[in-house]
Each structure stands twice: as C-alpha cells, then as structure tokens.
Inverse folding.
C-alpha cells in the first residue's frame, strides 16, 4: 500500500549536514517529535541521543564536549560516546551505575549528512541523496511550518533553478503533470516545448529533481527530516561538482521557496498530489482487473 | 486544568501570592494561583482581602488570607495547618532583603528541587557557590520532622568560593534545608559575618499554573557592610543562573515515580522530596507517569 507519507520512524533521516557539526559541537535537533542532541567528539565521531540527561532531565544540547565526552551543564555528569555515564563529579570515587545512560539512537554519517533513526532503521545505511550515487554537497536546510507530508509535496511541486529564484515553470504547470508510481517511488513528469521537469520521491523521504530548460539544466535532491507533526526540515543537496555560483543561486531559490511554503501548502498542493496518487492507484487497479 | 483545580491536596495548603507592601490601601491586583484567577484588594482601612474570579467576572470572596512576614498568604480551600513558623522574621539582628518576584516557566516543584540541590553549585554557580575543583558532595542527613509534615536535609557542607555578598574568602559552609511544603523551602546557612549564627534564604513559590511559577523570595542576612542593592545583585545573579537550567529541564512537571530519573547518593534530598510528593497525593505540577 502506497501513501505519500514521509513520517516513518523506521527509517534513516538526515538531522544535520556534516559540515555544520564541527568537532566539539553539540546541537539540538528534532525528529518525529523527539527532541534530540547531535554532537561530535574531538575525534570526529557523531552521536545522536535523546536531548534529556538521565540524571534529572536537563537538555543535553546545553552540555559541553571535552575530548570524546559530553558533560551535562547541570551537575557535570560526563557521558561517553556510547551514552554511558563515566563520571559523577559529586562522587569522584563512585563508578556510575549502568542505568545512568543517555538514550542513544542509531546514527550513520554518510553522503554529507548525519542520519538518525528513532526506531529500528529499515536499512543498514541511508541511500545516497542522488540515486546515481554521485557525491553531494549540502546547500541549505529549510525549516517549514507544515506537515512533513506537505513538505514532501512542496519539494516535488516547486522546482528550483539556478537561473531564477522564482518557479521556473509556467504558472499552473502542476495541473498537466503526469504521475507514475512503482513500489517505493512516486514520480511527477511535466513536459512542454523546451522544458522538462521530473521529480521522484523515494519514500519515505528523498526527492530527486531534474529540470531542463532549453540548454540549461539542473539536478538536486531534497532530503526530508520530519521534525514534528506540523513541522519539517528540508535539506537541499546538489552534486558536489556543481559550481559555487550555481550552488549559491540554488540556495537563493530555496529561500524564495521557503517564503512560498505556507501559501503553497494552503492552496491544497498536498491534497492535489494525494489526489493524483489516488487516481493513479485506481487506474492501476482497473488495468490489473482487465488483465485478469 | 479544571480537574487539577479540584486537587484537594493543593487547595488545602498556603501560598504566598504577593509582598504586602506592593498593594497599597484602596488598590487591587489580579494574579493567578493553581490555575485560577484571584483578585487581591486592600481596603482604605488597610485590610487585604482576596476573591476568586469566575469566568463570568463574578467574584467569590476567600476567607483564608493572612498577612505575615510582610507577605500575603492565601489558601483557596480549607487550610489543613498553620502557616510556616519562621521566628527569625521577628528577630532584629538580620536584614530582610526582599527579592521581589521572578517568573519561571516550569513547575514549582522543579524550582524547589533545584533550591535544595547541592550538586549543581560547581557547574551552575561556578565561582560563587561552587567551583569545578570542589564538586564533591559530602554525605548529609535527610529526615522528616514535625510529624513528617516537614522534610529536612541537615549537615550539608560545601566548599564555597563566595557564599554570600558579605563573604570574603572561600569557606566550607554548613547548610540546613527545610522543605515545609511542596512549594516552600528555607535554607539555614552559616553566616560568615556573625560566627555561629545563621542566615536564612526563604523561597516561596506561587504556582500560577502547573508549569508556570512565580518565585517570591526573602533573604534574612547578617550584613552590615553591603548595600541592599549589592546583596540583591548577588542573589539575582545566582537566581538567573538557576533559572537558565530550570527552563531547560524536561519534562516541566516533576516526575515522581522511581526510575523516571537516575539519581545518585548526593540526590538523597531529591529522592526523599519526590517520594514525599508522591505519597502526599498531590497532582498539581507533578508528572506521575511510570518509566
Ligand atoms: S541533569 Fe544532567 S547531570 Fe544532573
Ligand atoms: Fe542554584
């Protein structure tokens, strides 16, 4: 059963671009409604934990990284990379109990991002942002105040181009787009004289887009991070070999898209995409009946 | 919130809702207590009354209102006991420094638990009440007094770089903590000016909502040299530091069931406080879910 649904706890989601998380940094992030802390040891190892100290609930993102440990800001408990507390300053001689452990989530750092899962991740590691496996560069992260599903629809239905910050396609192009579906992907196709746009959503959360306009073309990936029930982060990644100017222009187009996000969501963009999916599903059902 | 208002344990206790001098004759003030609107009104004869404000604007007069220690005390139900006795307020050798009211967006129980906690001194009040090099918390005693209506932590001892506005050098300071109610606590702390005497720091939390509190506080200190402003500044700095951690604790309501948090030896007061709250039957401001 296929649904446009990017909230799947059994999956890897990017929580931060690797470059933003320097050694010795601890930052708060959210995933599927959970408050998390993502931090990097001096040795460069990234960890994702629940943002709550097991001692007395202090947000761990306010903690300090020293060497390869995270120290809670409230009573100075020291936590190792595996989440276990190794030192309680109030009792320097005491060996902390094994229960004194931060809640640790599965984490993978690959393809330019730190990925986490709040459940048991479905695969051993996250798929590459561009499906052909080319190396990517993280361009920007957008926080949008809409449901994660609406953010996914937004990523599919609002093309970005390095030659303009506005929607590069004619107004209302979505109405004449075609939808194609297979087991784990939904694809939007749109074509006119010299323009061609394809957006493929690899469920639950990666969107690959290709836009051709005459001699110009662009390609990028949107990576969904469902942060809450009505909020999402969208990470924009492009092929690492793209020029700096194009990255900058796409960054600006992305900011423009962010301005339009709430308005686009309220125009029924998500409803429209979901209707397309439902229609497609019904048509497929008729076809398979005909075959019988 | 409405069902919490029926919390009989919360309703039968006393709370500080204002500093008496803040409400002048002929003036009134609106505030909140336990999620309810309250109007405090002082008549021209100087008597302060209180009434509960209903949704339609009707006022229901409250009878259990008392002025004591320069504070206005209110109980919204039938008081189950007398207001806390703090005889030091009537003694003349200490200065009474009123710290006014400070809002904190968390439960009052979080505020009290932090107030009676020694092990954060070195990390939250570095350089005044503690230091990184002296973070060890020596063992202390926890006991119930007054028929188990009060919780005390005594013989608490901590090496403090600057224990008060009047403190000169770092000293090993002795503390007694007295928790009189879920929302009221007093510290008795060695005076560094008058040896053998105690300074008092009183914390009276007014729970506006389950997770919104106003802290009224007084310090009764032996100090002949510092100005009121100087002493106030010292305490405000300390409280601002406490506030910065209090608003970052999750959840805001205090968890009371075992194993929701992982305590250690120095948390003996916190463990006893949480158990005591759990047994009291209080609901307001507490997170009673299991681990
Ligand atoms: S809350 Fe983290 S060390 Fe106490
Ligand atoms: Fe403190």
């Amino acid at each position: 059963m296929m649904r446009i649904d990017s909230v799947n706890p059994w999956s890897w989601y990017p929580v931060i671009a690797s470059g933003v998380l320097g050694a010795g940094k601890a930052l708060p992030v959210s995933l599927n409604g959970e408050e998390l802390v993502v931090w990097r040891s001096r040795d460069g190892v990234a960890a994702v934990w629940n943002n709550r100290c097991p001692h007395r609930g202090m947000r761990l993102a306010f903690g300090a990284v020293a060497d390869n440990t995270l120290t809670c800001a409230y009573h100075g408990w020291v936590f190792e990379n595996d989440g276990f507390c190794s030192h309680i300053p109030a009792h320097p001689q005491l060996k902390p109990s094994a229960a004194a452990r931060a809640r640790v989530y599965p984490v993978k750092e690959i393809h330019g991002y730190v990925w986490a899962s709040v459940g048991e991740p479905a695969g051993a590691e996250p798929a590459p942002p561009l499906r052909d496996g080319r190396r990517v560069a993280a361009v920007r992260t957008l926080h949008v105040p809409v449901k994660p599903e609406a953010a996914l629809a937004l990523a599919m239905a609002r093309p970005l181009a390095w030659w303009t910050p506005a929607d590069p396609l004619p107004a209302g192009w979505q109405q004449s787009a075609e939808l194609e579906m297979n087991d784990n992907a939904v694809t939007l196709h749109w074509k006119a004289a010299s323009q061609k746009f394809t957006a493929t959503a690899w469920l639950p959360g990666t969107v690959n887009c290709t836009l051709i306009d005459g001699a110009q073309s662009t390609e990028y990936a949107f990576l969904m991070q469902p942060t809450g029930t009505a909020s999402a982060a969208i990470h924009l990644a492009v092929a690492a070999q793209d020029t700096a100017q194009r990255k900058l222009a796409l960054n600006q187009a992305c900011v423009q898209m962010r301005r339009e996000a709430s308005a686009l969501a309220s125009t029924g963009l998500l409803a429209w995409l979901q209707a397309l999916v439902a229609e497609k599903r019904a048509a497929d059902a008729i076809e398979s009946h005909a075959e019988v | 919130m409405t069902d919490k208002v029926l919390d009989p344990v919360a309703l039968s206790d006393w709370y500080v809702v204002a500093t008496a001098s803040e409400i002048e004759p002929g003036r009134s003030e609106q505030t909140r207590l336990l999620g309810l609107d309250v109007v405090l009104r002082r008549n021209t004869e100087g008597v302060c009354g209180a009434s509960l404000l209903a949704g339609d604007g009707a006022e229901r007069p409250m009878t259990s209102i008392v002025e004591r220690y320069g504070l206005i005390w209110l109980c919204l139900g039938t008081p189950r006991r007398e207001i806390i006795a703090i005889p030091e307020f009537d003694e003349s050798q200490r200065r009474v420094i009123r710290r006014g009211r400070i809002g904190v967006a968390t439960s009052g129980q979080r505020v009290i638990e932090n107030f009676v906690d020694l092990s954060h001194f070195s990390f939250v009040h570095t350089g005044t009440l503690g230091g990184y090099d002296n973070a060890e918390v020596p063992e202390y005693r926890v006991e119930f007094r007054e028929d188990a209506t009060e919780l005390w932590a005594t013989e608490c001892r901590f090496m403090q770089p600057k224990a008060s506005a009047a403190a000169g050098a770092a000293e090993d300071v002795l503390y007694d903590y007295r928790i009189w109610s879920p929302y009221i606590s007093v510290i008795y702390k060695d005076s560094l000016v008058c040896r053998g005497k105690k300074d008092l720091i009183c914390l009276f939390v007014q729970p506006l909502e389950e997770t919104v509190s106003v802290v009224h506080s007084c310090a009764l200190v032996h100090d002949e040299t510092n100005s009121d402003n100087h002493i106030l500044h010292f305490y405000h700095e300390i409280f601002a530091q406490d506030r910065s951690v209090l608003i970052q604790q999750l959840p805001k309501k205090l968890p009371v069931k075992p194993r929701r948090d992982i305590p250690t030896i120095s948390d003996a007061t916190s463990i006893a406080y949480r158990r005591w709250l759990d047994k009291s039957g209080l609901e307001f401001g507490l997170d009673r879910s299991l681990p």
Q: What stands out?
A: Chain B has six helices and 16 strands.
